[in-house]
Amino acid sequence: MTANAIEFPSDLEILMTREFEAPIELVFDVFTKEEHVRNTFPPFGEEMAVCDIDLRVGGEYHYVMVTDDGREMSFRGTFLEIEPPTRIVQTWLFEGWPDAEAVETVDFHETDGATRMTWKLAFRDQAGRDHMTQYDGIEASWDNVEAYLRTLRAA
């Protein structure tokens, strides 16, 4: 499994890089198509009750995960830039942490059949960034993406 490289370039940003052993088009699809996001976004096996993606500039996405104890976790945002298969920029809000509203930028670059993802969250304030650093779900979601890509390549 490829480790996540995590950096904090400023008081407002989290930057993570990860390499996936899959072509860029497939990785982009796994990040942007509902049938794939349902299988990868929930970090710890939660049920994905809502997964709506309107993949166009100005379109919105909305995800709702339900934990084993019945709590709902809702994420939503608006797509600001989409450049298939190399870039996605969107607003990002976890409704349980309104102070953690951010702009999420995901860039993909392929070399020799492997795709390097660079993921950045830029927050409005340091409190939002600090709040997010206490949550390990993003890393677990990237682990899910890697495992899911292996199953797609094996099929």
Number of helices: 4
| Fourth CATH level, the homologous superfamily | START domain
Spans of at least 5 consecutive residues whose pLDDT stays below 50 are none
For the record, what CATH class applies? Alpha Beta
What structural class results from the helix and strand content?
A: alpha+beta
Approximately what portion of the residues adopt beta-strand conformation? 35-45%
SSE pattern, N- to C-terminal: EEHHEEEEEEHH
User: What summary fits the major beta sheet?
Assistant: 8 strands, antiparallel
Which descriptor suits the 3D outline?
A: globular
Q: How many domains, as an integer?
A: 1
The number of strands is 8
Distance between the termini: 19 Å
CATH topology: Alpha-D-Glucose-1,6-Bisphosphate, Chain A, domain 4
CATH architecture: 2-Layer Sandwich
Radius of gyration: 15 Å
